[in-house]
Amino acid sequence: MQKLNIFAPLAYFHGGSINGYNAQTAPIFMPNTVGGYMPGPRDYPGNTSQPNSSKTIIAALEHGYVVVSAGLRGRTIIEDSKYVGKAPAFIVDMKAAIRFIRHNSELLPGNVDRIITNGTSAGGATSALTGTSGNEPFFDKYLQELGAADESDAIFAASCYCPIHNLEHADSAYEWQFNGINDWSKLNYGTGKIETGKLNDEQIVLSKELKHQFIDYLNSLQLQDNNNQKLSLDDNGQGSFLNYVKNFIIQSAQKALDSNQTVDSNSGVIIENDVVKDINWSKYLSFITRMKSTPAFDDLKMDNPEPNLFGTEKIDSQHFTKFAQEHSKVPSKLADQKLVQAINPLQYLDNKDSAKYWRIRHGASDRDTSFAIPIILATSLKNTGHKVDFAMPWDTPHSGDYDLRDLFTWIDKVCAEG
Ligand code: DHB
């Protein structure tokens, strides 16, 4: 059983208020500490162990929010010789925590009609899934097994930094973006060293196949831009969706210029008189570089976090795409495809208990997943009537919580509006 921590500003214990909020009306902010789909322990102000969101918790309390930090299981936890933190444990624990605070709302500070989740990367995916999957029946069985309260687990708003989600389409999206760039480089968090490599001949062939899978997937979504124009890709992976993606980067560079940030002259961004006119896409991709080899997530030796997330009580790692299972280099099984879909936030776009308000950020130099992935999330949410604030901050790598002042301004606005 995971535990949770609940914090309220001291003023609320004496009947005071901060920024117009009091013990009854304050939004309930729920940052998580999940990264890499590893366990995300409950957290507290002043915590210095890794991972932690201590600075975020302190800033949120100073701003007048009630903070609930729930411990969430992750893919490496073993109890009684069983893996107990494989998918969907992280989201089940999150929902159990939300049900707990709702069940005890008379006793606890904060407004349970204003719950806002927040997280980065796998934690951003956790926030996104919490946002779309409110009260979805798929999770009932797991929540009952855990003894979760019989309450709603719907939330008001979700804040997601670089969410690593839509895993079953992330490999193909990655190759749609990086096909043709065969050198990769990434930081090994364990050793602190940069590792580099080159796709081999087989991976180059797989990259092309995956790229074409993405074209079919994207076209099947029938996404629309803000002017209700259809977003699609041709057989070469070009077309209105690519232009739409490029435009987010162009807007990002323009915003950087407007606030006197430097835009690197090697980035492929074409500037005339302080106006971004266009972007040389292949130059931009070479500038940010490919991080992952092929397939990027469901790798053929199952060394990545994602196959490990889809293990079972007895099996540590499993492939989660048919493609990787067919090309696997190790003895392997295919994970239950219903479970893989069930932890994809996009599965629940038509859910009437999904969060109404969304703030999604994905750095313009983030290469942990394809730009297509957060853009599909933001656009699908918009197309299904959600209120979405999406941007790709310039020169920003895979990271989160870098603009808390703006995040809190957004939370205050949507809380007042909703
Ligand atoms: C995270 C980053 C990744 O590149 C990934 O594949 C999974 C998770 C993370 O930082 O949480």
UniProtKB/TrEMBL annotation:
InterPro entries, A to Z: AB_hydrolase_fold, BD-FAE-like_dom, Tannase_B
GO MF term list: hydrolase activity
Family matches, as Pfam families: BD-FAE (PF20434)
Keywords for this protein: Hydrolase
Domain BD-FAE-like: 53-151
UniProt xrefs under NCBIfam families: tannase_B
The protein's name: Alpha/beta hydrolase
Organism: Companilactobacillus pabuli
